[in-house]
Amino acid sequence: MRKLRKLLFFTALFVIIIAIPALADAPPDPGGDPNTGGGTPVGGAPVGGGLIAMALYGALYGILKMRAFIKNHA
Question: What pTM, to 2 d.p., does this model score?
Answer without folding.
Answer: 0.38
